[in-house]
Amino acid sequence: MILVSELLSKPVISLYGASQVGIAANIIFDKKLKKAKFIKLFCDDEQDTEVLYIDIKHIKNLASDALAVSNKDKLLQEWAFIFDGTTNPINSSVYNIEGRLIGYIKDIELDNNTVVSLILNTNDKLLVANIVAISNDNIIYNDTDKPFKIAGPKKPKVPRNTASNQFVEVHEVQSQIDNDISLPKLVSPDNTQVSRSPASPDKINNLYSFLLGKILSKPLLDDNQKIIAHKFSTITEDTISLAKTHGRLVQLALYAD
User: How far apart are CA 68 and CA 61, in angstroms?
Assistant: First the structure.
């Protein structure tokens, strides 16, 4: 077992070259405060002042007088370090699930890199398994014998989508157009087959007349991404005709506001 306070200020040495590469300045933990992940190093000499990081798994023995790594290749420069965890919680306030202040984190007990317990200023030890939530400044701790889970915020109710309603309306209109275009052949009294002609452009425009005067919420584009009708433009009969020519009637209705 080792305490985080015992790790801090230890020299970090590279076995290759027998050189000191920095001083242990802080510890980075995982998001759930179960594992110590990285040690932040501070290097201060006459030629360079630099912050470095090293994965704890590369440390030979945390309990040694110095933290030894095989070589400097194991070190991460600050610009290359991606933070994805929890900062050192020492000095953080600890509250129970009713909001009562339990104390402050004085130290952290580790078994290799696994967090065993959090030590309070009262010297009481807290189990990591009972931690409910963690931030940079506070820890919420379940000090009861019953399991506790924080209820997250409810998802807001999403109003009915106007565009979806329009799509249903347009889909019905489109089905009516398709029926007109593919009507079966009729037989006259003298057994002569007569074909119904497809729906005329005027009829199609009339079916979409409910769009006249509405405003486009998005630009209407053709297959080559060229603009048929601009965003915020008013839909006219010409707009409907152009949309029909380019096969964009459904999109026109969806973008109408």
Answer: 7
Average pLDDT, the chain: 79
Residues 214/191, Cβ–Cβ less than 8 Å = no
End-to-end CA gap in the chain: 67
Specify the pLDDT at position 63: 86
Q: Say if CB 53 and CB 36 are below 8 A apart.
A: no
CATH number of residue 25's parent domain: 2.30.30.240
Q: What does the pLDDT look like over 141-178, one tens digit per residue?
A: 998 888 887 777 777 776 665 544 554 455 555 555 55
Sequence-distant (6+) residues with CB within 8 A of 107 are: 3, 4, 5, 90, 118, 119
Q: Give the Cα separation of 15 and 55 in Å (integer).
A: 16
- The pTM of the full predicted model, rounded to 2 decimals, is 0.55
Do 94 and 78 have their domain in common? no
Number of helices and strands in the chain (H, E)? 5, 18
Q: How many distinct structural domains can be found in the chain?
A: 3
Residue range 35-70, pLDDT digits in tens: 998 888 887 655 556 678 888 888 888 888 898 888
- φ, ψ at 135 (rounded to 5°): -135, -175
Q: Which domain holds residue 100?
A: 89-141
Element (H, E) at 106: strand 101-111
Angle at 198 between CA 197 and CA 199, to 5 degrees: 120
- Mean pLDDT computed over 25-42: 88
